[in-house]
Design brief:
By secondary structure, the protein is α+β, with helices and mostly antiparallel strands. The chain is built from 6 helices and 8 strands. The relative contact order is 0.15.
């Protein structure tokens, strides 16, 4: 091999490494779904159900919809919910409940997802209905101390069976107004992202309503 050919091959190899690196970095910065993987089975097997829920929810922090100004997301696509007019196989709808149900399912909690009363679906209030049916609904004024892995329900109206938001509980300190949570479809750090928030007693501080209403506990399959 001549010295000229060798130099050209070396240049091409370096260029290829640079391109791959740029693709990986760009994907991480834009929050593409394939950069937010669930922890491995080996990494989860020593954890109990609640710990697995927290680990999986935390693993998704930073995920953003694609396009970023849309509701196109991978969690609704997992449930085949919403509309399928998004790039990359994603589905489009407001997805806080789809995210929480996805986390529970991936962690091994009992999840039956269907558009029927008493099942989980894309409605935030479906977690309240599911909790009532399974005996794991805890109103905020009941004295119940939330546990990691619970789902917090915000802005619940039991008369119309509507809720503003749900989020996965990661920690609670006695005396705080609300739990630490991971929000799916949050908007504190941008439009429609997975993000953390501490002492969350209101779904969105920029909007009226959405006060913490209660908690739903998971059940092992």
């Amino acid at each position: 091999m001549s010295a000229v050919i060798a130099r050209r091959l070396a240049i091409l190899l370096v260029a290829g490494v640079v391109v791959v690196t740029l693709v990986v970095v760009t994907a991480a910065r834009t929050g593409k779904s394939d950069t937010f993987l669930v922890p491995s089975k080996a990494g989860l097997e020593h954890l109990d159900l609640r710990e697995r829920i927290v680990a999986i929810a935390e693993s998704q922090v930073g995920y953003r919809t694609d396009p970023t100004n849309s509701y196109c997301n991978k969690y609704s696509a997992f449930w085949k919910a919403g509309t399928s007019d998004c790039p990359g196989g994603n589905h489009r709808e407001e997805w806080c409940a789809d995210f929480a149900a996805w986390v529970w399912r991936k962690a091994g909690a009992l999840v039956r997802y269907q558009l029927l009363s008493g099942y989980l679906d894309s409605s935030a209030a479906s977690f309240y209905e599911w909790g009532v049916v399974h005996g794991t609904w805890h109103p905020v004024n009941s004295g119940y101390r939330p546990q990691p892995g619970d789902v917090a329900v915000y802005g619940l109206d039991t008369y119309t069976t509507y809720a503003v938001h749900v989020a996965v509980v990661t920690h609670f300190t006695f005396g705080d107004a609300g739990p630490n949570v991971v929000n799916g479809d949050g908007d504190r750090t941008g439009f429609s992202a997975v993000e953390r928030n501490a002492d969350q007693y209101r779904a969105d501080p920029k909007k009226p309503g959405g006060i913490l209403s209660g908690y739903v506990s998971p059940i092992t399959i």
